[in-house]
């Protein structure tokens, strides 16, 4: 006889199809699945104890309590309206044999919560006895007394109907808030978002010490004045006309010998006349010096190693240069590696 294996149940487990079939027999489960399908979430029909299931449960409870509270608030409002604008009379009767003492005792028990601060809302034995109604008997002689039941009935509505609903509503709202927090903290997308937000992308401090500002370029020396030796004029990028070049040179304190040589960023290579020891370069003062101009200066220095290079920035009228434009050129020339280069009109 084979040994009995206690790890196997006598009944085989239900298959997934059979489990789904049994669950589909539950109307509440079917409605929950329909709501989840409409919302595109897994809340109402989720596994019991899951964060989504807990939130859905308290959501339904709080919604139901909102409806109940709204109903009883409306009931209280209608009751007060009828008491003010109509003449209500109350009575009681019963088919079974209930004595007046028993009804009065029941009313005393029900009025216990407010008997201490509202004794007028507790029906007296006399009121209970006078308001008893029997179909075959004559109406009570003092019908005005029958309206004395309204405080008792009003407090019954508030204490036993409205107040419990409000307490359950407050509890449901608090529990729903806690369940919502747990749902958000366990949702994969929310968890991923919190992880991305918790890791700073940038830091307020630099990873490496900031580099100190580069030292200021040394000021240019004073450009040499005319000592009787004419200079060779070079017009860079058509800064001035040939006819205006001698006047511009004289305004800067120099004399140009012969026609000027044209040079540009397109054709920077020029032929420097032999024996030229001073080269006067006329440029557009309103345009800042570019790298092509510095390359041109280095080429001039290689072609005329003993010559002095003097840059003369010109304005639009070709009769001088603005101070701000000259300072820009002086600062740029001061940082250039080419030696013995000056800017006319002062120091940089």
List keywords for this structure.
single chain, 348 residues, alpha/beta, Rossmann fold, 2 domains, 5-stranded parallel β-sheet, 10 helices, disordered N terminus
Would you tell me the structural class of the helices and strands?
A: alpha/beta
- Give the uncertain stretches in residue-range form: 1-12
Shape descriptor reads rod-shaped
Q: Strand sequence of the main sheet, in spatial order?
A: 2-1-3-4-5
Beta-strand content estimate: 5-15%
Succession of helices and strands: HHHHHHHEHEEHEHE
Q: In percent, how helical is the residue content?
A: 40-55%
In total, the number of domains comes to 2
User: What do the pLDDT scores average to?
Assistant: 76
Q: Overview of this structure, please?
A:
There is one protein chain. Helix 8 links the parallel strand 1 and strand 2. The chain has a five-stranded parallel β-sheet with strand order 2-1-3-4-5, sandwiched between helices. Helix 3 packs antiparallel against helix 6. The N terminus is likely disordered. It folds into two domains: 167 residues, no CATH class; 112 residues, Rossmann fold (3-Layer(aba) Sandwich), CATH 3.40.50. The protein is an alpha/beta fold. The chain contains ten helices and five strands. The protein is rod-shaped.
């Amino acid at each position: 006889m084979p040994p009995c294996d206690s790890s196997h149940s006598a009944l085989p487990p239900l298959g997934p199809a059979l489990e789904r079939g049994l669950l589909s027999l539950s109307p509440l489960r079917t409605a929950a699945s329909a709501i989840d399908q409409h919302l595109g979430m897994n809340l109402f029909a989720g596994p019991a104890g899951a964060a989504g299931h807990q939130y859905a449960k308290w959501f339904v409870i709080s919604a139901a309590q909102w409806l109940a509270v709204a109903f009883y608030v409306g009931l209280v409002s209608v009751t007060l309206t009828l008491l003010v604008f109509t003449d209500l009379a109350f009575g009681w009767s019963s088919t079974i044999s209930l004595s007046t003492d028993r009804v009065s005792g029941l009313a005393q028990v029900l009025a216990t919560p407010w008997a201490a601060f509202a004794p007028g809302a507790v029906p007296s034995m006399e009121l209970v006895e006078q308001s008893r109604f029997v179909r075959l008997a004559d109406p009570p002689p003092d019908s005005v007394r029958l309206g004395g039941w309204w405080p008792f009935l009003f407090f019954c509505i508030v204490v036993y109907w409205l107040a419990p609903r409000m307490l359950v509503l407050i509890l449901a709202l608090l529990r729903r808030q806690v369940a919502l927090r747990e749902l958000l903290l366990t949702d994969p997308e929310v968890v991923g978002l919190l992880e991305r937000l918790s890791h700073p992308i940038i830091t307020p401090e630099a990873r490496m010490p900031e580099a100190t500002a580069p030292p200021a370029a040394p000021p240019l020396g004073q450009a040499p004045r005319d000592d009787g030796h004419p200079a060779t004029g070079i017009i860079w990028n058509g800064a001035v006309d040939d006819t205006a070049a001698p006047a511009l040179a004289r305004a800067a304190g120099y004399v140009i010998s012969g026609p000027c040589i044209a040079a540009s960023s397109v054709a920077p290579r020029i032929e420097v006349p032999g024996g030229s020891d001073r080269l006067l370069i006329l440029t557009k003062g309103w345009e800042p010096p570019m790298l092509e101009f510095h390359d041109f200066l280095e080429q001039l220095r290689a072609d005329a190693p003993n010559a002095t290079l003097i840059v003369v920035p010109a304005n639009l009228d070709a009769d001088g240069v603005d101070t701000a434009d000259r300072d820009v050129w002086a600062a740029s020339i001061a940082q250039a590696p080419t030696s013995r280069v000056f800017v006319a009109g002062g120091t940089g």
